[in-house]
Specification:
2 copies of one chain form a homodimer.
Chain A (H helix, E strand, L loop, with lengths): L1 H17 L21 E7 L10 H13 L4 E6 L10 H7 L4 E4 L23 H10 L2 H9 L4 E8 L6 E3 L13 E3 L2 H9 L3 E3 L3 H10 L4 E2 L4 H6 L8 E3 L9 E7 H5 L3 H35 L4 E3 L3 H21 L1 H23 L1 H7 L1
Parallel strand pairs in A: 1-2, 1-3, 6-7, 6-8, 9-11
Antiparallel strand pairs in A: 3-10, 4-10, 5-8, 5-9
Helix pairs in contact in A: 2-10, 4-5, 5-12, 6-11, 11-12, 12-13
């Protein structure tokens, strides 16, 4: 940690200096840093249980990267959901400056900004590779920043789960009729599409799901995928696990930063924050990719979970309903239309290319 | 750039100090940094033309990240292939310390280390998502470091192209017979598999390909994908563009660092190097994903390129030959066997899970 080295040397120079002059600048307290070498302490609030696999590891990794890269000049402390603020109040906490930073999913803020869910996942939309390309080379991140700017909040891509599983159902789903009146925990645009085909979408943070499912307050839930679903023990509360992920085909998480706090950082620390988010964005997907299959095998072999695809008529109905919901949203909210137009144009192109590359390779190998 | 701020202040203190004492430490030259705040200047040599789209942008982005995050304490200068050393001498240059760092592809070093190509791409092997997960959460990176350790070189994942195209052929390929005696530029294990089915693999750096193809020194070439292939103008030298990528289904690039140079860095700069490589690893894929489709449309619509799949019998023969080559390599080289065993075990698991997630989603959406 060279940074402490120079601080000590500088403090030493000052001590010698004070021997012959009183014109010394004040030292920066215990750290010995002068004002120009200021130490920043940031709170990072999250929507996840502290240290939760994948989602919760992302912000911890971020903090570790930043603390080390900055030589301790930017110290980030991570809070689990409910430790400082509830999981669904992360955005407000960052906007108000209660915390300098947050880690969450953009679709949690759809009540405030109808376009927000586009920056986490759209049913039958882009997968993780496509989403990252749109955000960083297709104009997506600029639109995301435009959306959050009125709140003084700056978003960064903050990891991705890959394709999420369709979820856990207490009863088997054999046809579209089985969804009628079903209470299911499903957030974002997926929830609105689910309503369109006759279901009843419910929103709650991850930590509340297990009890709701076990007590029968909900009949079904999606959460993430085998790695996280196993960690919550959802298999103890529902028997049927459907894999045909449709509602969140590559869910982006977000790091959000209070604009004033960010602007107060020197350029090197700003870049450290930015690059650390990019690295975590990749790292979280790597963790999910490596751990999901192990967890799936455990669910099947140790817990006797039945894993199955959704029936074709259900998938078809969901796909049709998705188009309807997206068209309605575009008609209702000009910012939704602006963001979705960019998303759709990029998606059409990249999906076409993936037919010749990623998709063709999956099917050829 | 606070770092310059404190340097100036420190220099100021020294100037005042020298007014009443001669016991001053030497300043660190123009930068004003003392020894504890040492500035490091690194050369980064690459196997690509300077600033080449994707491959060449990766090291430039890395340098920009590191220069800014370190406040100028670690200054990285990037050299294109042939500017300081030839493209195929990057590894030796880093091992010897001629350059502190390199950016290349591991399969270029297969003459030195038979197992090296596993860390770039295996025919019919893992795609980019799977490869990154194996490297960072499946033990892959540890094995890679074990392989390079005897040379005093530390590897980091350094970007990925995604699925590469099967390549450019002067004549149409209608059956396996059309490959017999064909001179094709194809590196790594793909080249050995190509030889197994009757072709003649040739190795050369990217910069040499166009002339070789145009003069007929080679009959065919793979390079990367539409984005890079368009930049080289390969469509001017061959008419047939085959998309069914099989030989490099998610090619990892590498950053390599001279071990002594790395160990000489303080902990904050070491972490800055590590995290910057992770961020570039993601960023390069984003660039390829966003640009490949645009380039493919340009090749088809503006340059009249015919894009087609390889015949089924060719793909089948290549797949069989791949198994043979991998078995032979495992029998010949214990380190190849050790690395490939880890790779294969991870691949079998993750491919099984991707059947229910990424692959299923591509086919359902």
């Amino acid at each position: 940690m060279k940074i402490f080295g120079i601080a000590a040397l500088f403090a030493g120079a000052l001590i010698m200096l004070t021997g012959c002059s009183k014109e010394t600048p004040a030292t920066g307290g215990e750290s010995g840093h002068a004002a120009t070498q200021q130490t920043f302490k940031w709170k990072l609030v999250t929507s996840w249980p502290k240290n939760f696999p994948g989602l919760g590891r992302g912000p911890e990794t971020f903090a570790e990267y930043v603390n080390t890269m900055s030589g301790g000049r930017l110290q980030v402390q991570v809070f689990g959901a409910g430790e400082l603020v509830p999981g669904f109040e992360v955005f407000d906490a960052v906007a108000s400056g209660t915390a300098q930073m947050g880690h969450a999913g953009a679709y949690y803020w759809k009540g405030k900004m109808p376009a927000a869910p586009i920056f986490s996942a759209i049913p039958f939309g882009m997968n993780v590779t496509e989403m990252n390309a749109w955000l960083h080379y297709g104009g997506g991140l600029e639109l995301w920043r435009e959306l959050y700017a009125p709140f003084g909040v700056i978003p960064f891509a903050g990891g991705n789960t890959g394709v999420q599983m369709a979820g856990w159902f207490k009863q088997e789903i054999n046809s579209l009729e089985d969804l009628a009146g079903l209470n299911m925990r499903i957030p974002g645009l997926g929830g609105e599409v689910f309503k369109e085909v006759g279901g009843v979408p419910v929103t709650m943070t991850g930590g509340e799901i297990f009890v709701a499912l076990q007590t029968g307050a909900i009949d079904a839930t999606e959460w993430v995928g085998p790695y996280n679903d196993l960690a919550f023990g959802l298999f103890r509360a529902a028997d049927n696990y459907y894999h045909s992920g449709w509602h969140e085909p590559g869910t982006a998480l977000e790091f959000i930063v209070n604009e004033e706090a960010y602007n107060a950082l020197p350029a090197d620390l700003q870049k450290i924050v930015e690059v650390a988010t990019r690295a975590v964005n990749q790292d979280m997907l790597d963790e999910y990719t490596a751990r999901n299959n192990q967890a799936m095998q455990k669910l099947i072999n140790e817990h006797g979970v039945k894993v199955k695809p959704l029936p074709d008529d259900v998938l078809r109905a969901l796909k049709d309903a998705t188009q309807k919901v997206l068209a309605e949203k575009s008609a209702q909210d000009p910012m939704f239309k602006k963001v979705y137009d960019s998303y759709r144009q990029f998606y059409e192109g990249v999906a076409e290319y993936h037919k010749l590359s990623e998709q063709a390779y999956y099917n050829n190998r």
